[in-house]
Amino acid sequence: MTYAPITISAKFDLFSEQWQPKVIAEMNDYQFKLVRLQGDFVWHSHADTDETFIVLHGQLRIDFRDGAVELKAGDMFVVPKGKEHKPYAATEAQVMLIEPRGVANTGDLAAGERTASNDVWV
């Protein structure tokens, strides 16, 4: 077995598309995903799981029907399962997501133009 670190900045260099999470590691049934975000996403929720956002570069706002949370580089926030939310980034943010394998990025919404393929690795 080869032991090597995962260099997050090098992984971000491998893709430029936005709103398309890429898996970089798994731990048990959880995936660590990198994603570039800019602009508005869609309102959605995840009925069966929490979703963790860690901002690595830039700023991210997560809107809720009853408020919002502003995140900057180095901040983390866990959206509770079932809580409707909508991420937004005025300029590109680089974010790590932590969620169970197989979770659709658009949650409970029917597949649409913002729905990303699952299990895409970089």
Automatic annotation (TrEMBL):
Gene3D superfamilies: Jelly Rolls
InterPro entries, per the entry: Cupin_2, PKS_Associated_Protein, RmlC-like_jellyroll, RmlC_Cupin_sf
Domain Cupin type-2, chain residue ranges per copy: 40-98
Pfam families, A to Z: Cupin_2 (PF07883)
Signal peptide annotation: none
SUPFAM superfamilies recorded: RmlC-like cupins
Domain of life: Bacteria
Protein name (database record): Cupin domain-containing protein
